[in-house]
Sequence to fold (1189 residues):
Amino acid sequence: MHSRSIRAGYVLALACLLSCMLCACGGGGDSGASSTGLIDLTSVQVTTQAGGPLAPFGSTAGGDEVKLHGRGFSTGADVLFGNVVASVKRVITGEITVTAPASREGLTSITITNPNGDSATFPDVFRYIAPPGVTRLNIITGPTAGEDRVPIAGGETLEIEGTNFKNGLQLFVNGSRVTATFVDERHARFRAPASPSEASVDVQVTNPEGLMAVLPLAVRYTQEFSLAVETGGFPERHARHLFRRAAFGATPARIAQAVSDGLSTTVGGLMGFSNDDTVEDAALAVYGGNPPPRDSLSSRLNRRWWIHMLIKNSNPFQERLAWFLHDHFATSDAGFAVDANWFFYKQVQLFRRFSLATSDATGDGATGLAYNWRDMLIAVAKDRAMLEWLDGRVSRVGRPNENFARELWELFTLGEGNGYTEEDIQEAAKAFTGFEWWRDRAHTIYADDRLDMRYRSGRHDASEKTIFGVTGRFGYDSIGPLYWKEADGANAADYDAAVDTDTRDTDGGIVALTLRERPDQAAMFICRKLADFFLYDDPHDVVVKPLADQLIASNWNLEPVLRRMLLSRAMYSNRAIKGKVRNHVEFVFDFMRTANVDLHPTSVVINASRVETRLQQNLGQVPLQPPDVNGWPTGTAWLSSQGMLERVNFITYAIDQLDDFDLQIVPLIPPAGQRGATQLVDHLAKILDVQLSGSARAKAIAYVTTQESNGTTVPFAYNPSNDEHVKMKTRGLLFLIAQYHSGHQN
Amino acid sequence: MTTRNTSRTHWTRRRFLRNSALGAGAAGILPIIGMRSARAVQGIRGRFMVVVNMLGGNDGLNMVVPTHLSPYVDRRPSINLVENLPSGKALHDLSDGFKLHYNLPTVKSIWDDNDLHVVQKVSYPNPNQSHFTSQDIFSFGVRDTGAGDGRGWLGRFADEYCSNPSEPLGVISVGLGRRRDFESNETDPAILSSVEKFALNPDTNYRTDQVLRERVAREILAGELDPGAEPGLSIFQANQQAYSLIEQVQAETEDWVEPDPKYPTTSLGRNLRTVSNLLAGQDVFNTKVYYTGYGGFDTHSNQHINPTGTGSDGRHASLMKQLDDALSIFRTDLKARRLWDSCVIVVISEFGRRVFENGSAGTDHGHGNPFLVMGGNVKGRLDAGGMTGELLETHIDSESTVPFGLDFRDLYGNVIQNHLGVAPGPLFPDAGYTPAFNDIDLI
Fold:
């Protein structure tokens, strides 16, 4: 807290308390004042404070400039305020300028003593007033009540806390006056003004007499709740953030392109695309086969194919969403028989075509779902891997299995206990009946004895069920002829008809019923998960609700919701950028995409197989094997000692392998002439988007010009024109920078 | 079957709000080798506990079989182990009509040595059938997990008994990743999957420079004054912890030799092998609790003998075999090293399963559950935990599940108090829980 002088002083004439003889003072200027007469004080002028009924006054903290006007002052005069010595700045004829000392509240006397011993005391001519003090700002209302930041839209009730506030005080936020509510001498409240940015601003408290205090940077703004479109440009920092969240990182070239295109065009390009058939065909050809064998696909091959796509798909948002869906529906291939692994191939393709237009298709010929959440739920209920995983295929009339019914609501659509009862589960379980394993031994549909699922109406419970208080004949939802069209053979049409609808279910399916009867819960549930995934951990309802409303209004089409999030100010808030902890898959894939590691399928050095092996054996996060039905954990769950160690080891492994392709490290190295130690460090930190502290950066730079010798660090004559030097130190800097804590933040 | 914890981020937020640790964290980069506590070690030196968590809800009625109770046979006609034993297999006698699963001969042998204590009906008040909720209750050690202090019971254990000066390996998670049991304000838990993998790999092209790289990495960690806001701070501390532990663990365990025959390559086999390996450094690490386990217990279907007779006995039988095979090697190993008396193994699960079989030859979620407590220091017995007599017919209630009898915290508390020698009270701060560690007599 400090006080500033803001206004000119003024003069109050005082009645003389002593009679005095006027004398004609000679001389002038700063020195040489002399007096041959008695001392008289005619007025006290405080130049550093305002006027008003309490003047002349100064702060009990001292420091105010006070001019004493009168006569009889001599050079070298001493001045006391009460008993306290005031520092004399200047004595001229008729005026002494002093700095008021600190003292206690109340009226005080001023004593002037000339060097010759003449002295005069003037009682009660100066008033000390205690200034206000400010200690903290509290957020009283709004989504951040009790926390430390204010939404940029403003409007929340804020409270400034301090000491010695007076009724009638004024408050200024960032220099502008706001309406103040005096609460008590320690508290005052005001409404937060809106702010155009996330900058922090000062709050100033000014008491009625003019004494003030400032709390610097008291109000910290955040745009994390704003779904308005971000219009503040698209710097590299934002572009890298977007690609970390909407993809698995991006090469420096791609980032440069994005910055040049701007935010809107970049998001448009990420979200609107056609299936990358070239990369998909190439990946399938190497891992498993194109198409993969129905009866002998190993889970490892399936995983490798998908890992290749996750890293190399030219439409990375498609894979990122597929990953989100894989995590959400959390089906594990552990324990699947080899002839059922094909079901997992189909499930991955289902997730991959969520973002495709209905006129587009993935490599297995199944068509897109156009971001429609309802259609995804309907398709998942009949997905073969899901039917196996949650016991749909053993559920039949008379012996319904409740597993899928429970998890559909608890895990996939509504949240635990949120709008349904145990009785609802029992009833819905009856609707989810009818599927079974099947081998087409008579070759009526397929040309071979492949294992598949089929729906038998004899196994389906077509009775009336009462769910959410609604009675009807409910069953599986129909998604229309788009679904399950891969059957070949003469009876394909019959097969589709039997699968898609059981005509006895005259009141439709459970998914449609759920979204119709519990729309708010369903929309909030999925929007909260998406906001958590794309924006930041624990999103508040304030930002989730508008997205949920939009989802309902768009008839369960998630495309506008996703677009809005990726374009929003919330997305580019300080809370969002680098606000999450990467899981192992993100850490590995981001590094590989950013470093543009060539995942050539037939390379024996580094390819999807090697990545899969390292993920499984070392890092312990295996795609398609989430640890439990809650999917992958988040946050600091990934920061085990072993996990941190294995991430560092992965970087070493990747760097180790890069050299065999020799040229691959080149894109990471700055151009010739810009390879000095400092330039190298800054360049690599920028590519990896790692913010090194001053101390860390200095050590990294020192690393370049040092080497190891028998257990100690000794100088190294690093030559930026020597390619071997540059390569070695680039590898070392990748090791140091990628493991720095900022490198684990997503 | 399971529950998504919609408030899972409760603990992450608490961790993110932690503001005390900068000083402790930055100063806490630990001395690398030869670390010893400056003050007296808490508890009885050398003693440790191994928690084996059967994840998913173990079917206790088929593990400790009440052969004398007709509801057990009547209500699970195709999966009861009185009538449906595979040929050549037999249950193993315990006492009073209770018998062990046929795949548990080692456990039977431990029983014969008077080193096995079976406690029936272990659970917690107002049992919950959700995996996630139940597992959280076990992890946090409080019934109302939303109202706790955010720490896991092992987090409190580490804070209370392993933190000043730091004993970073005082409690270790083996092979299960980071469980909530370890959430703590002060301590970052040690999470290991195997000792061999707990080492930095070199850049084979530049081995000499690699030495410098690792040195610089440590210097960067040691010199970092302000890692900034979360999540950077937590990541930074995890990095520090990892580097510090790497060197300690490798140095102290390099004398370990795997016994012959070797540990099975199953999940639990590998995990107990890692425990065995870590025990080589016990004198320095002073580990008090190893927390491990394995999964697959959520046997809603195909629990029983495979009807097509392809040789598999069903999922539960193979899980029992995995337990027994791993325990067999572990016990022999520890006895050879004279560690069996210092060890107490507690086999737990988040709930048992219903008496009735379901329509898919499996069982659904239940409540009370038998826990196995084994070790040289354990008093051999079978009891119903807190109630006199054995599991009686009336204890299988109308909902057809075994009810709650003994609070798991009393069981843990008895072991912690009487075997480890430290006070269990601070570990379970739950206003609704009245400790009764002494109502059971395990050690």
About this structure: Chain B has 13 helices and 14 strands. The longest strand of chain B covers residues 48-55.
